[in-house]
Amino acid sequence: MRITDLNVLRMAEAVINTLQMFATKLNLVPKLPQLFEELKALVALHHERNQQLVLGSSDAAVKQEKRKLLETSADELANTMLLFANMENVTEVRGKVDLYYSDLHRVGGDKLLDTCRELHRLATTLLDRLDDYSINTAWLNGFKLTIDGYAAVNSAPRASISARAAIKTEMESIISDIRALLTDKMDLAFGIVKSREPEFFAAYTNARVIVDRHGKRRPSSPEGETQGMVSGTLTDSVTAEPIADAIVQMEGMPEATTTDEDGSFAFDQVDPGMHSILCIKETYQNLSLTNIEVKADEETEVEGVMVKG
Q: What DSSP designation does 284 have?
């Protein structure tokens, strides 16, 4: 997403904040309360679709969803079995489940699957005793399907470049439509209150001027050129899971950034030219991304794969 596109979202959030400040007065203005809710819903939808854009093009969205579902189900089973073991003082079961439970959120990929399969196998041997704790054949069959679902996406080959490009193009089109709708609704809000609430009108106008000016990407840099943006993702070399909280340093930028929970990072106001990025994460080898070409008024996307060691 380019800087100018991000400004539409910033503007919408600024309008929502301003509407909240004037909520008592503006609730009396026809159509404005409904418009306020529509703006909030569109901003939430924008965030959701943008996350899908980040994850979907790398096949991580479905995989992450199925992993979370598996972890949630495994947590429920492990906690129920611990309750059973403690209530009936079955020391051996408690010891085994403790070991499985400690691995559930520490490992991924095949190791997570192995842990869940062992948990399922143990529960199956105790099925006649677990029924009093709401674990029955139907529940365990559902858990087995959840395991199989994660196993399928974990072993599936990564989508082709063309398939990922098609997903990205479609999602960008959806996000663009959302931004256009946001802009229309903000202008509608502007029109509604223009003659009714001059104080809100002034706040809205000032906010829009500031954001629109920012959106022109600061027309000149020291070299007399406009600037660009670099965005990217970091994933684990084995599990292909996103790497969060990695430190990302870009040559020539005054401050480093960190990856979010989706493994994503971004730098704006980057001067055109060739750049390099250093990625640092505890328990991983440092990763250098080189020969990153940044062009004026364009977004450059990079992908990094980090190796543990």
A: B
